[in-house]
Amino acid sequence: MTTAPARSTRTSITWWECEPRRLRRDQEEIPAHFPHLVFSDEGAGGWEGMLPRWPFDRPEPAHLTDWIGERGLRLRLEYGQAYPMVAPRVFPLDPLPEPFEWTQHRWHVNGDSSLCLLRDDVWTGRESVGDLLLKAAGWRIEYALMKHQTIEEMTGSGIVTDSRLDHFLAQPPTPADTTGHGEPDTAGQDGPAC
């Protein structure tokens, strides 16, 4: 008589049980630079809240609030259980990109509505989540420039360290249609993916 092999009863463990130093690092760095984000340990964990309007290492342009208002991007950052080897996903909550923008690389939004923040960079697992959050803050500003039809596509490197778009923000936007491009523009869908 043969007996059936014993079944292994594995319990799932979270990424932070495997990477407690990384959790500690994120829980120190993120509140220090982004105090309005709140950590949640639900699922694989994440952060939600409001980014600063201009968290960059150069003076805020004079008319930034005319472009984006008083507040920065409201977002949800979601870790996956493969973090830190796989970058977390960042979902904008306010403003919320329109569905037709999700599939056009020029908006830097992925098909699931998460932001494409690593377009010109590589995530190795050693990078700071704070760098992604800075890029998300920059995305918010470039999104306003896109909606005002001031630029045709978002920059590859972002405005975190690139001041080439700051001159637009030094003056108020021209009164125009700020609802976007009206009809969904499908041009550029065959361009480089995020």
Structure description:
- The chain is α+β, with helices and mostly antiparallel strands and 194 residues long.
- Helices cover 24% and strands 10% of the residues.
- The protein is built from five helices and four strands; from the N terminus they run ααββαββαα.
- Strand 1 and strand 2 form a beta hairpin.
- The longest helix is centred in the C-terminal third of the chain and has 19 residues.
- It is elongated and about 80 Å long.
- The termini are far apart.
Question: What secondary-structure arrangement, pairings included, does this model have?
Answer:
Elements: H1 15-18, H2 20-33, E1 37-40, E2 46-50, H3 64-68, E3 74-78, E4 89-94, H4 129-147, H5 166-169
Antiparallel strand pairs: 1-2, 2-3, 3-4
Count of beta strands: 4
**What string gives the helices and strands in order?**
HHEEHEEHH
- Counted by DSSP, the helix tally is 5
Shape: elongated
- N→C terminal distance: 58 Å
Quick summary of this structure?
The chain has about 190 residues and is of the alpha+beta class.
List descriptors.
5 helices; four-stranded antiparallel beta sheet; alpha+beta; single chain
